[in-house]
């Protein structure tokens, strides 16, 4: 499309999120051989941790003047930390191995490649707010699918390794929930009207002023409470 305003980086960032979502879902449904799948999931979770840290630095274009970054970057960093905890648990479950033991095939290989692609594509991402929200929505689903895969690995394992796979499953579930909440807050912030700049020639009615005998409801205080809940 000619004359578009989206920067070139928005394309690879979205493509990486879609590929990661598709690959993670395929692996969760495929029920691969556990010895092959465990190191692949570990490497993919490590890349998810790294990619989320890059995604937190997403540069939003086309925002109105005076619009801040909001709470989304910090919430994405929280999800990255949860993914990092999952990576540590998977590494421990796999005997402390850092690199997968051998090449993967099929959906497992696609997951490994998609996670590595996300690291590159989200290194310095930029685009509009809608692009970023779609990316967060897709990676939320990917993290949930990876959590399901960790749970599958736990069911076929005994002892301490099974416990560590369960820890990884829970950490990835937490990461998905953090991203889900971040997305809800980002959409709520974007839907909220942008306040008029100071010195505007058409100021809104002052707090408490009456209009034809009726008091004007004060909604700013409710907005603050809603924003505070999203920040937590």
Structure description:
With 232 residues, the protein is mostly helical. It has a single domain (10-192), classed as Ferritin, CATH 1.20.1260. The chain has seven helices and four strands; from the N terminus they run ααβααβααββα. The protein has helices at 10-30, 34-55, 72-93, 106-121, 129-155, 159-191, 220-231; strands at residues 59-60, 126-127, 210-211, 214-215. The chain has a two-stranded parallel ribbon with strand order 1-2. Strands 3-4 form a two-stranded antiparallel ribbon. α1 (10-30) packs antiparallel against α4 (106-121), α2 (34-55) runs antiparallel to α3 and α3 runs antiparallel to α6 (159-191). It is elongated, with a radius of gyration of 22 Å.
Structural class: mainly alpha
Radius of gyration: 22 Å
Percent of residues in helices: 55-70%
Q: In percent, how much strand structure appears in the residues?
A: under 5%
H/E element order? HHEHHEHHEEH
Uncertain spans, ≥5 residues at pLDDT below 50?
1-10, 214-228
CATH architecture grouping: Up-down Bundle
Q: Cα distance, first to last residue? A: 40 Å
Q: Give the overall pLDDT as a whole number.
A: 80
Instruction: Name the overall outline.
Output: elongated
Q: Class, according to the CATH hierarchy?
A: Mainly Alpha
For the largest beta-sheet, the strand count, sense and barrel status come to: 2 strands, parallel
The CATH topology annotation reads as Ferritin
How many strand elements?
4
Number of helices: 7
Number of domains: 1
**Strand order within the widest sheet?**
1-2
């Amino acid at each position: 499309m000619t004359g578009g305003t989206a920067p070139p980086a928005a394309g690879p960032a979205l493509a990486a999120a879609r590929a990661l979502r598709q690959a993670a879902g395929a692996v969760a449904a495929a029920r691969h051989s556990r010895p092959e799948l465990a190191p692949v999931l570990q490497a993919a979770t490590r890349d998810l941790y790294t990619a989320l840290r890059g995604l937190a630095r997403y540069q939003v274009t086309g925002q109105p003047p005076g619009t801040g970054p909001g709470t989304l970057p910090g919430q994405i960093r929280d999800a990255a930390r949860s993914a990092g905890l999952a990576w540590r648990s998977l590494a421990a479950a796999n005997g402390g191995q850092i690199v997968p033991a051998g090449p993967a095939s099929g959906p497992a290989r696609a997951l490994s490649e998609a996670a590595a692609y996300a690291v590159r594509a989200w290194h310095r991402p930029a685009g509009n707010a809608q692009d970023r929200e779609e990316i967060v929505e897709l990676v939320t689903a990917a993290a949930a699918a990876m959590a399901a895969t960790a749970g599958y690995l736990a069911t076929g394992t005994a002892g301490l390794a099974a416990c560590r796979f369960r820890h990884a499953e829970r950490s990835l579930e937490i990461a998905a929930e953090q991203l889900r909440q971040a997305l809800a807050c980002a959409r709520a912030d974007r839907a909220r009207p942008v306040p008029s700049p100071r010195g505007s020639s058409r100021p809104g009615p002052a707090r408490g002023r009456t209009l034809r005998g009726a008091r004007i409801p004060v909604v700013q205080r409710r907005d603050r409470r809603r924003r505070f809940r999203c920040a937590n």
